[in-house]
Amino acid sequence: MLNLINFHSINVDIEGEIAWVQAAATLGQLYYNIAEKSPIHAFPAGLGPPVGVGGHFSGGGFGSLMRKYGLSADNIIDARIVDANGKILDRRSMGEDLFWAIRGGGAASFGVVLSWKIKLVRVPSTVTVFTVAKTLEQGAIRLLHKWQYIAHKLPKDLAIMPGIAKINSTRQLSFTSLFLGKAEELLQIMQESFPELDLKREDCIETTWVRSTMHFFGLPFNGSLNPLLDRIPKPRYPFKSVSDYVTDPIPKSALQELWRRTSEVDLPYIAFIPYGGRMSEISKSKIPYPHREGNIYFISYEVDWIKEGESTKNIEWMRSLYKYMTPYVSKQPRRAYLNYRDLDLGQNKIDGSASYEEAKIWGVKYFNGNFDRLVKVKSKVDPSNFFSNEQSIPVSHPDEWID
């Protein structure tokens, strides 16, 4: 195991609209450093400022800007990586195959990324956020059902992200949103596309993009930006999380059952992330992350627990929920997101020595048709399988490949 904690410098070049970001920097540090240089530049990445960029970028990396600009990995233009021979390589010296693999294929299978060169994106000086919460009695299921039909078709500048959670023991569905523009324009779009939510001007907060990232994470966002620099994550309870992709709207009856099941545990959280927009325009093979056109949204299921001795109960609850959702999500294969790594999908041996056929069980769920190309790259750049873990890309003997 390598500790890269001191590799967290960030160099932002606003004129060139690029930045070099070391692998142990956090998203919050990145957002802060961009904002120091420009109020109209951003980077498409996640909603948690303490998240490290290294794993986030290498697995794909999505957030509130992805309908406009795609994933973090879609906006990486160079990297520095230590390979299995101890050499430090950049894009030119590593070659396009390895550079392709580490942007969404999980860089830990191929080497140690020291830093990423990213392309910054432009945002308006004023953006609008809102969070509107609904209980079951206020029509939460009806609204979530309608959201499925419109969220992926909305303008790229708008991402509406519902989430089911328990707040003070009361379950509610919160619609959290980022709009790259002013409130009046947002209200007009909502009235035309989603009037059922009954969004009002007083629900909308006009702010800057960097402060919107603080809003989503529950940080005070009217004062200093310094909380973004906090590299110490909030204390985490034990948790289990899994993922799904949805290609057709889920029936209202299934959403009602999903809601009912959240009453069975203390700390459930289910997030729905809309696709469409730029995510449907990028080829499924441009980088290893394949979940593009045809997916209307992504589901993240999570359950946390506080008390000792509750692991079995909560893990079994999650497994039961995941099984229940099988008919309503993507099929052949049922897809999953690498950054929500789930050993229940099937795992390599602990030393990463599983065969191609063993690893393919989970590999096609994360990477679909890109899995074979990842195996070819792995076999070429790390034939001794120096970089391995329970779900690392396997090495396959060259004779097994027929080009």
Automatic annotation (TrEMBL):
Keyword Oxidoreductase found: no
Pfam families documented for this protein: BBE, FAD_binding_4
One GO molecular-function entry: oxidoreductase activity
FAD-binding PCMH-type domain residues: 1-123
Presence of keyword ATP-binding: no
InterPro entries: BBE (IPR012951), FAD-bd_PCMH (IPR016166), FAD-bd_PCMH-like_sf (IPR036318), FAD-bd_PCMH_sub2 (IPR016169), Oxid_FAD_bind_N (IPR006094)
UniProt keywords, alphabetically: FAD, Flavoprotein, Glycoprotein, Signal
Domain of life per record: Eukaryota
Family, per entry: Belongs to the oxygen-dependent FAD-linked oxidoreductase family.
Descriptive protein name: FAD-binding PCMH-type domain-containing protein
